[in-house]
Write a structure and sequence with these properties.
single chain; alpha/beta; Rossmann fold; 16 helices
Length: about 450
């Protein structure tokens, strides 16, 4: 029979407390050393990637474009939040700006703005049908303030602006009938932009849907942006601080098209004086006249222009169509230098030629402002557009107002009332004295059925 002492000796003895503490301390030390080694390796890798040109241009391009995409998403979210409070539904137009609407200063993108509207919901000081205006301007957000106000100051003419963000030609022509012509203007400036064909097709789709505008457009227009703002801020910080993160993003790209972001993302362009981001949609989905949506949209643009022409002729108002160029067309040479050989950048000039032919078919005067803006870029070295935003910056607004003043002076409509000596872009069309309209090559989608 075993004694109690022998039974106690048969069980393994537990390690002394000081041994367990030493093991735990050793484990913590090893973990700290491993973490330090990992951080040192990361730091050395970051330094090597920053100091030596071993990172491929495709990865650096992806890094720069992802940063711009994060900035664009944040600006889009801020803009949508502002629009939600600014717009109201309209059975004919789909939506319109609230009349007599005033907000305090709100941050939209990188700037602070104060929004005020007149009694009809436009950005004029007042809308008074008993006081005729000299010039009425219709269009989308490019015709919103401040360039119509600047035009009024420098031309000494009474100018009324009827620009509403994201409007399209069917809505422009409704605005002409409902708001512009009751002011009895002498000249109507009808402004077209690169997205007008696609937006016109969407407007017709809304009319057939039977839904209110906000429900029809839903998430892609007034909804929450797909990416959470906090996540976009973190990603932008990582992209700015870590080239290793850019390598990881490049390795995790789903395909080669996503890696070379000119095929899927904005295209950065930088000079000594400014930086710009080109939008690939400007020469793909918005302007490819071979796609069904753009074909259908151009036909709607044609009918809308014809409606506005008839309204203006009946009211004895001179109508001039202005082609407002996107930054991708003004800085076209820079875009060509950064595009791949198979990128369809030729869609941009072809789309504007199609718009010119529509005006030729309808015998409407028109004026392409592209050369005017290109000349200003060459003369001053200024971008004229926001870096990420598609719209003009302050310099671009001033250039637009000066160009419009020159066009009005050259039209001969206000002899003795306005003096402007700067050269104007040529006015093409039936009423352009001494100028022959050169119509572009026929485009089949423009022919009437």
């Amino acid at each position: 029979m075993n004694s109690p002492s022998s039974q106690e000796n048969s069980h393994p003895s537990a390690p002394p407390p000081n041994v367990s503490a030493r093991r735990f301390a050793r484990l913590l030390t090893n973990m700290a050393l491993a973490s330090a080694a990992g951080l040192a390796a990361l730091a050395l890798s970051e330094a090597a990637l920053a100091l030596f040109p071993i990172v491929s241009p495709a990865i650096e391009t992806l890094r720069a474009q992802r940063i711009k995409l994060c900035q664009f998403e944040r600006a889009a979210r801020a803009g949508r939040e502002a629009y939600q409070s600014l717009f109201m539904t309209d059975p004919e137009l789909g939506y319109r700006i609230r009349p007599d609407f005033v907000t305090g200063r709100k941050r939209v993108g990188s700037s602070w703005v104060e929004i005020k509207t007149d009694s009809c919901g436009f950005f004029n000081q007042d809308y008074d049908a008993s006081h005729p205006c000299d010039v009425a301007c219709v269009g989308d957000s490019f015709v919103a303030p401040p360039w119509p106000n600047i035009l009024q100051d420098i031309s000494k003419l009474r100018v009324a602006g009827f620009g509403v963000p994201a409007y399209s030609p069917p809505q422009y022509s409704i605005v002409v009938r409902r708001y512009a012509l009751p002011l009895r203007p002498k000249v109507l400036l009808y402004c077209l932009y690169v997205n007008d064909a696609v937006e016109s097709a969407r407007f017709e789709d809304w009319k057939r849907s039977g839904l209110d505008w906000f429900t029809f457009r839903g998430r892609d227009w007034f909804g929450i942006t797909p990416s959470h703002p906090g996540r976009m801020l973190v990603e932008e910080w990582l992209l700015r601080c870590s080239r290793i993160y850019a390598l990881w993003r490049f390795a995790g790209a789903r395909n080669a098209g996503e890696r070379i972001s000119i095929t899927a993302h904005p295209i950065p362009y930088k000079t000594d004086k400014f930086s710009l981001v080109f939008d690939r949609a400007s020469f793909t989905t918005l302007t490819d006249v071979q796609t069904d949506m753009v074909k259908r949209g151009l036909a709607i643009v044609r009918d809308s222009l014809d409606e506005a022409r008839q309204l203006c002729e009946a009211a004895n108002v001179r109508m001039i169509v202005l082609f407002l160029p996107p930054k991708e067309l003004v800085h076209f040479e820079a875009l060509k230098a950064r595009a791949k050989p198979d990128d369809p950048i030729g869609n941009l000039p072809a789309f504007y030629l199609a718009l010119q032919q529509i005006c030729a078919l309808l015998q409407i005067e028109c004026c392409d402002l592209t050369d005017s803006f290109r000349g200003e870029v060459t003369r001053t070295g200024k971008a004229l557009y926001g870096e990420v935003d598609i719209h003009w910056d302050e310099d671009g607004m001033n250039q637009m107002a000066r160009t419009a003043a020159a066009i009005l002076a050259a039209s001969g409509q206000f002899r003795g009332k306005t003096k402007w000596t700067e050269p104007a872009p040529p006015i093409m069309g039936r009423r352009a004295v001494g100028r022959k309209f050169i119509a572009p090559t026929s485009v089949g989608v423009l022919n009437r059925p």
